[in-house]
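Database export, one record per block. Field names are fixed; values are copied verbatim from the stored entry.
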Amino acid sequence: MRFPLFKIRYKSQIEFTLHLGLSSFRLLFVFLCFSFQLAFSQNNSPNIYAKGLGKQSFVNEKKDSVSIKGLENIIDIEFSQRNDSIYYQLEGFDSKIFTAAFPKIRYTNLSGGKYILKYRLSSQKEFKNIKINIEEAIWQKWWFFPMIAFYVLLVIGIGIYFFFLYNFRQKMKMQQLRNKISSDLHDEVGSNLSSIAIYTQVLKKGLKDSELLPILDKITANSKESVTLMQDTVWALNPNNDSPERLFKRIEAYAKEILAEKNISYFQEADISFEKIKLDMEDRKNLYLILKEGINNIAKHSEATKATLTVSEKNQKIFFELKDNGEGFETNKEIEGNGLRNFKERAAESNFELKIESDKGKGTVLSICLSH
């Protein structure tokens, strides 16, 4: 019988099958362990801690995106592989790739904007990304500084507007006051002075040979002089006469009236634009009274046949020059007697530069310099 041979073959086949099954199981176990370790090392997600003002922060489930809202922000990223070093770079902030001996990254107080954190552990072959989005503070917005500049300009503009409005209203009040004063002077004081002169003339007719006649003559002269001075003051106070053209015309009218009685020809000319002449009420009055007194002196003392007033500009200064071809005088000796001291006093009040040139037989030049 051959049954023993069959038993040997059957036993060997079973042993071989068992041995082959154990080997396959071991290979499968090793493969699963290797795959698990590889997957763990490649897909291990970091622990991310993010903090914004008021805890307004968000980390998504995949841990590849971080959003922070706040003025002060903190980002901590830590990996479980304690023995690995790490290579990282925050694009938009870091200029190069940095290396840390421990797998931990920390950023604080980043400016608002979008960043991408690239990192790679020493056990990994490829870089991975984490998107970081930090909300911009209001002063980091592109429109913040233009808006501030706009509001500053707006406030300045409003301030300038109210300043000029206030200034305009003050000028209007001043003009109304000047109109009232000039009107009162013209109506009340002028009529009273004229009445005094008229009453004096009537009184003189009743006292033909009286010793009081010289006194009455003095009263009449003083009244007429007061009326003239009052008229000049009223003219200077009137806002309608603020322009240099009005001043020039008034001087011309007065000079022709006074000098015509003495057969003295009078000319005046201006070589500049009147817009360049800037005079306030006080300066205009002083300039007019100085020129008026000069014209009176020509009529009373010069024995001239010709007088000229010229207005010109030299070295950014405006000159008024009143000339005559009369007898002239010695200024050092006669300045007190001719009342020329009044010229200098009025010129000093308005900071005019006054110069008087005169010689016997060569006429007189009265020069007034206005800086502008």
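Remark 1: The longest strand covers residues 113-121.
Remark 2: Residues 119 and 128 are 5 Å apart (CA to CA).
End of record.
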